[in-house]
Write a structure and sequence with these properties.
Blueprint lengths: L9 E11 L8 E11 L2 H12 L14 E10 L14 E2 L3 E2 L9 E2 L2 E5 L13 E2 L4
Antiparallel strand pairs: 1-2, 1-3, 3-7, 3-8, 4-5, 6-7
């Protein structure tokens, strides 16, 4: 069996945000998660993620039909830096509200490239890549 390092394509870490349906008791829910994949280009990452996210189980653990997932950042890993790199830093405060960042500390160094996915209008919310349960 081939190792993961021998698979074709570039290695990417994708930082995602999911706007989720409210809990059974009506509380707002959302989720940040990281997804690692191989793709031929940064442009192909969205297509691969949309196809894979559409296969997620929708039984409420953690996702349900109608949850919307957006990509916030794509990190291309050309080479693993000898000293390592912090890719995911979430700081929680009080009621576990997210107040941290997700990008590596350096945007382009030692084989790591960060692509921020921003809405055209900064006051708008990020557009969903996929709404689970919809075709």
């Amino acid at each position: 069996m081939a190792s993961a390092n021998q698979e074709p394509g570039k290695l990417f870490m994708v930082y995602c945000y999911a706007e989720m349906k409210p809990s059974e008791d009506g509380e707002d829910r959302s989720c940040y998660f990281s997804y690692m994949l191989r793709a031929n280009s940064v442009e192909e990452v969205g297509d691969v993620c949309a196809a894979e996210f559409a296969k997620l189980p929708l039984d409420g653990e953690p996702f349900s039909a109608g949850d919307a997932i957006a990509i916030e950042e794509i990190v291309e890993i050309e080479e693993l830096p000898a000293q390592g790199v912090m890719l995911d830093c979430k700081v929680m405060q009080g009621d576990y509200s997210f107040v941290g960042g997700m990008a590596p500390y350096s945007e382009e160094s030692d084989g790591i490239i960060v692509y921020e996915i921003l809405p055209e209008d900064e006051e708008e919310e990020q557009e969903a890549l996929v709404v689970l349960g919809e075709e």
